[in-house]
Amino acid sequence: MPKIAYAQMKVVAGHPDVNTRKILQLIDEARACGADMVIFPELAVPGRMVGGAWQQETFLDDCECYGAEIIAASKNITVVFGNIDIDVNDKPFNAIFVARNGKLIDSPVIGHELPSAEEKNSCAAPDTQAAYLHLENDTSDGAIEEYGASFLIGNQEQSVDRTSAFCLRLSSAPFVVGEKSATKNYGRPLISVSAVGVQNTGKTIYPFDGGSAVYNSRGELVQYAEPFAECLNFVELNEIDRMPVLKPPVETESARIYRAIRYGVKEFLEQIGVGKVVIGVSGGIDSAVAAALYVQVVGAENVYLVNMPSRFNSATTKNLSDRLAKNLGCKYFVVPIQESVDWTVKQLEGVGVSVSNFVKENIQARDRSARILAAVAASVGGVFTCNANKAESTVGYATLYGDEAGFLSALADLWKYQVYDLARYMNAEIYKREVIPQGIIDIVPSAELSTAQNVDEGKGDPLRYDYHDYLLRAFAENNWTPEEILRWYATGELEKSIGCNAGLVEKYFPNEEDFIADLERWWRAFTGMGVAKRIQSPPILAVTNSPYGARRESQNGTHFTRAYRELKAELIGGK
Amino acid sequence: MPKIAYAQMKVVAGHPDVNTRKILQLIDEARACGADMVIFPELAVPGRMVGGAWQQETFLDDCECYGAEIIAASKNITVVFGNIDIDVNDKPFNAIFVARNGKLIDSPVIGHELPSAEEKNSCAAPDTQAAYLHLENDTSDGAIEEYGASFLIGNQEQSVDRTSAFCLRLSSAPFVVGEKSATKNYGRPLISVSAVGVQNTGKTIYPFDGGSAVYNSRGELVQYAEPFAECLNFVELNEIDRMPVLKPPVETESARIYRAIRYGVKEFLEQIGVGKVVIGVSGGIDSAVAAALYVQVVGAENVYLVNMPSRFNSATTKNLSDRLAKNLGCKYFVVPIQESVDWTVKQLEGVGVSVSNFVKENIQARDRSARILAAVAASVGGVFTCNANKAESTVGYATLYGDEAGFLSALADLWKYQVYDLARYMNAEIYKREVIPQGIIDIVPSAELSTAQNVDEGKGDPLRYDYHDYLLRAFAENNWTPEEILRWYATGELEKSIGCNAGLVEKYFPNEEDFIADLERWWRAFTGMGVAKRIQSPPILAVTNSPYGARRESQNGTHFTRAYRELKAELIGGK
User: What residues in B contact A271, CB-CB < 8 Å?
Assistant: First the structure.
């Protein structure tokens, strides 16, 4: 009865030495536990997101050289692992190697050329190839049995060789919040192994959740690995169809998001070798959620909260910041910025440059991040965070070198409503007490950079998040443009199409002109300054399929299609 | 004798309305001049670098709708233009359309699916297809002749249909400094038309130089368009093989770079609608070259030079800044930063954070850009520049939100020696006087952020540009790693391999340990903090095939291959 081990290992992209050391350990462990075979993820040796290293001949050679070491270590155990294979033109290909007793059993199974156009996914995976695997069978007569196996690379559906007795899938893909598509039933047992860890394409940081699992011949789940955890699991091949069927626990979106972000932040900090985190806290929701999150990752003793009031910051938000810091037990500094802002204005006016109120707003934001937070972070040997959410990032409602600065934007793939959900989730399920004061959840969202944003008068951001979250999601995640939006508005289908609550369009926009002015304002922001700011924004922790950074963007300004302009003219004519 | 017009037009990416208006005008102009045919560049309707718009169904439809308008406008003239063609799966393909008298002559010539993996190039272009073109022939009997034409898309070599009488190439590609590969001889006349303008992929701004030209059947140049200029040129098809052969003028690298950068900056500013530019000038070479460049683009009256001394800035560099501003005739402000830096340190120490000298260096850099320059730019309604060069960008020798900030890095695809060359070129050929003071060219490059960088004592940057420019180019443009570098060092071939002057390795590195320490220091910087800083750096004006931004990069830290470590051990053993 062949015993198969599958290793949901943490793959460190660009470090074949580190990955190989781990693989060799796990081979020993699997052998010691009596496994006949051990399986590692797709691209377990190089990692998937290795950036410029795909173009380095020496890196490719290095991966081959470590691959040879793994093959050599396959004494008395079949080792299946993902690495690159270099073709006659020196191009690297995604490949699966199968070795036993120091030799490859067959030629490697070759997937697509690397890197993929969209680096986070396997693409154009070929049909699977089958190989006959010699596995020890511990039946009384001690005979060696052969099993035909089909190999699948990545997440794509592939067809399976008819003669194979079971399937092995090696993959390596980032976490995505939302529905998981059902695993295809191949009509025979499937053992699927995938990597955990954090990989990045520069601007976008992807947590990999693993999701390794075993399915029976009816496509039902019979064993699975904890998400985001390294583990070596075992299954008896001939038992798979007799094992009880499992249902993975159903979780809320916030629980899934929290775990992915917490893991992603933790691993990323570890990768860059940083243990201390500085967070500017305003008394608003985004910085409060960031603070509660980072305390879970590095501990309260390593989180520095800094409140930096100007004359526009209310006692209300200052008190809420203070309460937050007390609840979390972090170090807490208050560093006022008004003197510095006044001095900057004085210096500029001294050389004849007059400074408008709008410019003064952004001076405050940059003073906080580039003058104070960056210096505090460098002084304590840590980093400071960017607390932007996806709605702000979409329309560039943030100041470059100000609140749009930091080592990582952990919340920038979350819409504002998801940030609120996360606040409530952390209070209820993680801290099990009100660490994020209810006042922060209840207060109107505001940048507090001018009297026009006075929270005590209920004034705040120009975004009505219960509507704009969904409008902006339509732009950023669905690739819809004002043409679709206006068409749905005209037919009354807008709220349903973008997924917001009914009645909001009528509530916020008394007439067509108001609706169109708002639509065009945010479309211009998304395609104009929003792009310019995203080019220089910090890396983003991805939890969706369309995080910024990974998204193809050009700084081309705003375009309205002819069909949009015609529809607009029909609705409001020459107005 | 058919007369053919070819339009080296400025294509505005993502704005089919603007491009179509231009195309319609040029069709009228060509017809008025008696042309039988007019040819427009590849992707003349949508542009090449349209970013997220490739995923917008409404954008694709819009391009088709404008394409129909162009087809409808082809009365009495054959119009050849690049647009997208949408296949049955709603995917856009690079395509050439040929229309006459309101109808397509044939099905469009289909190239590769869009977008290309590497957006700046056409890829996987198919073999050409031939079409028979009806062109008026003005011979005495007034007969209509048919000409078989082969259509080529992009810059790739393609094979040509044997029956075709001539070839038409439609392309659209960025300027690249350095050798141009010779145009393939197709054995018949070739008319090649390409776009000018500026397109971008977000982080990377590409000037398009055009390079439209006519070649005879022997592959010799007989007509060409001025680079970076919009023009409608004419050629008589039957005359091409009788036209005198031309040689385009030979130019220096600096002349080519200057023209590309000047054009790129001018067009980019126009695209983002900005006419005023603020530049922090230190008395060093990079900011001086930037100042002289921007004065040529927007005029001295729209350039604001700001010198921001701290206690570490020498009288020498302050005087040089002053002289530069006088020479250029720009507005000039001196805004000292020492008080603000002291106040920041005092505020931090006031809350118990102690500030090291190294942190104080970066406080100065951020104070200049994020506090002063950003506020001046916003106040005058302009932008401020980033003056980083490619050597600094490669190793992250710059401060984020400090000198690594700005709307555009116009010099960040130039090595330090190219910045010096550009200074000399502008003095000699553009200004024809010493606008950049010789003192700025002669002084040791220095950040002047501490006494360790005292220029009057000849101290400055840790980079020895005459060697490090070439080492870093090997990393950044050749994909060489320490493994190749150390191998060449060991065999004495290093200087020749990386292209620097002989004798420098011996001059700078007395022994193997010193050489290896330096190599590892900069490799760590390139693959470590350099990547982190580039993720948040301003857009870069590209003049090479491997500008940052376009280059695939991951923040994965530093890796040394096993072969490197073995070679190092051979050289220095356990030292």
Answer: 555-557
